[in-house]
Amino acid sequence: MTSTMMTLQYLLLFSCILIVHPFSLPSHQVKLGGGSTIHNRRCRPLRTSSHLPPKLEHLVQDTLDSDRKIVVVTGGVLSGIGKGVTASSMGVLFRAMGYRVTALKIDPYLNVDAGTMSPFEHGEVFVLDDGGETDLDLGNYERFLSVSLTKDSNLSTGKIYQSVIERERVGEYLGKTVQVVPHISDAIQEWILKVAQTPVSRFSKVANDNDDAKDEPPEVCIVELGGTLGDIESMPFVEALRQLQENLGYKNLCFAHVSLVPSLGDPAEQKTKPTQHSVKSMMQLGLRPDFLCCRGKEQLEPSTVSKLSLFTSVPKGAIVSLHDVSNIYRVPLMMIEQNVHSMLAQRLRLGPYEKGVDYSMVEDLTQIEESVVIKDWKKLADSVDEPESECVIGIVGKYIEQGDAYLSVVKALTHASIATKQRLRIEWIEASSLCKDDDGDDAENASDETAWDRLKLCDGVVVPGGFGSRGMEGKIQTIQYLRENKVPFLGICLGMQATVIEYCRNVVGIKKAHSAEFFDDLVKDEEDAVIFMPEGDRTRLGGTMRLGVRETVLLEGSIARKMYGSEKVMERHRHRYEVNPALVSRLESAGLQFVGRNTDESGQRMEVCELSESTHPYFVASQYHPEFTSRPELPNPLFLGLLQTCKKTAAAKSKATVAN
Questions:
Q1: What does the pLDDT read at residue 259?
Q2: What are phi and psi of 283, to 5 degrees?
Q3: What is the pLDDT of residue 26?
Q4: Which of 410, 327, 374, 387 lies closest to 636, judged by CA?
Q5: Distance in angstroms (rounded) separating the CA atoms of residues 387 and 650
Q6: Residue 16 pLDDT more than 80?
Q7: Can you give the pLDDT at residue 4?
Q8: Would residue 493 show up in a list of annotated catalytic residues for this protein?
Q9: Are strands 593-600 and 603-610 parallel, antiparallel or unpaired?
Q10: Which of 257, 341, 575, 625 is flagged as catalytic?
């Protein structure tokens, strides 16, 4: 009887050990009292990578071995809430802490990339060095992080499904039924981890950057999930991110959720319900925010923070107020004031983190306020708010109703205005409103005299790129006015092509000169001032333009050469049409100098044209897009030259007025 009781007690103890500690030992072993060990095939580790495909398992292990960290930024309540600026600002904090940072933008739409999307619907298409046509948020990442990203840094539903289908077609899945989970979700995780380990080159030299770190893999990857949590198209990405945190572990991945806290009533009261429901939706999907970044007009009140913490389970210290500020360069500084940098370091176990201390309660660990990056950033933010004068720049385009269609142009102008200590004011002018005979489809705007009045008040004008004939005649007439009245001018892409057409018509005397993009009956090498590139593809639109970074050789003594300070420059392109080389000699004989050229496998291409400074103070146009390579600490030289000339011209006018 006693022996039977002892046996039952022993079995009961054994069962309790299996229930309480079934996963505490490797190799499927269970430890018993007295030091003995029993092997049990049913007792397997809870967290194991054996269920992962080999490629993903290798990437997960590499991430863990490299101690690489991932920060995921999501958004709720509404789109366009500021996820991109939030993600970029966190990147600035990591930069200041001395870490190499990269970024990935996830867009849930089915397009393979942004290249075929209308600017009216999606805003600007941002072009990378490798020719990737991406979401405009990658421009924010490059400008804030001071890096040059790759086309893989923008992931869309179209891209991921295309890659999985291609793998299925070649038999990579060995006859299995290909499903969203696990095949799509695994592919998404692989993509994220590949981008996280891909070295990114520094575009510009910052004071504390180390040349030896230039080609090394990143240490932190910031992932922005586009759209709003709960959108049906983003579900595979949400599930993939949930699995990714399980695979990497708590200390290697964290979530920052950006939400809206509106103020309503009189007096205004901050409302937390939208954010409460947004976080609830996030948690129902299997994600839990570590940081809650709240957008609003005013700083969060203590009572609002307490209420949000109570209903979302996010610690009070990790609820960050991202209220409106004078300029976006103050956002990283606002985060530092709320100790976000230390909380990120503690949450991700970076640097001198404190063991046993909750990440939201940690004191200042990093002291990045004394770093060169943050000191320079403060100077940058202050200079935006403390200009010496004002400069009015007109942008004559066809997409002006969409504020983000020319985002990089605006940013490049902003960088140049900061460098020249001017307050930038942009005058948006619809190109089709400047010409009675514009052959576009917007006749109701034709010949708007107020548009010409606004144009004539500008200190300088930019004619940016675009596609289609609408507004082309308005651009050509604008350029004629700027040339004849010596108003500082910068043309970009289609703006350069319009410049050549205008000069052919009004100076060279080719009255019917135009672009082969719009007319196919032009006299060859006479009226076709702009032609289709020989290697172009007329049947497929996506990814078939002349894309990415190319070398341009600048002529000694030119304005462009003086501004760049170098004979050879690398700039990004996005075009199908180019200046007809057959007309170059006639144009140059008439005074329009092609001072920037590129020689590739298809022959010599015209990249920059200008009038001499003795003829015009600043009349420059480029086939490439200089706006894509402008940075806050290093404005693009062509934009800087425009703003410098505007300031110089305005000062001369002011002096003449005083004298009279």
A1: 96
A2: -70, -30
A3: 39
A4: 410
A5: 15
A6: no
A7: 52
A8: yes
A9: antiparallel
A10: 625
**Contact at 8 Å (CB) between 68 and 217?**
yes
From 239, 627, 633, 646, active-site residue: 627
Q: Is the model's pLDDT at 368 over the cut of 50?
A: yes
Q: H/E element holding 530?
A: strand 528-532
Note whether 532 and 497 are within 8 A (CB).
no
Q: Is the peptide bond before 182 cis (omega within 30 degrees of 0)?
A: yes
Q: How many whole angstroms separate alpha carbon 462 and alpha carbon 479?
A: 10
Under DSSP, the state recorded for 593 is E
When pLDDT is cut at 50, 70 and 90, the band that residue 12 belongs to is very low
CB 153 within 8 A of CB 104: yes
415 is known as an active-site residue: no
Query: Smallest Cα–Cα separation from 150: which of 541, 542, 546, 548?
Result: 548
For residue 333, give the amino acid letter: L
Q: Is 142 helix (H, G, I), strand (E, B) or coil?
A: helix
Q: Supply 537's token pair.
A: 């593809």
Among residues 221, 391, 435, 493, which one is catalytic? 493
For residue 393, the Cα-to-chain-centroid distance in whole angstroms is 24
Count CB atoms within 10 A of the CB of residue 544. Answer: 14
pLDDT band at 255 (very low <50, low <70, confident <90, very high): very high
**pLDDT for residue 453 is more than 90:** yes
Which tens digit of pLDDT belongs to each residue from 110-164?
999 888 888 878 789 999 999 999 999 999 999 999 999 999 999 999 999 999 9
Closest by CA position to 339, among listed 360, 353, 324: 360
- Per the structure block, which two tokens stand in for 359? 């990440």
- The structure tokens listed for 626 are 């200089």
> Which two structure tokens, joined as six digits, stand for 539?
């049947």
Q: Which helix (H) or strand (E) holds 637?
A: helix 637-659
Question: Looking at the predicted structure, is the pLDDT value of residue 341 above 90?
Answer: yes
Residue 32 is encoded by which pair of tokens? 């018993």
Closest CA to 219 of 350, 87, 92: 350
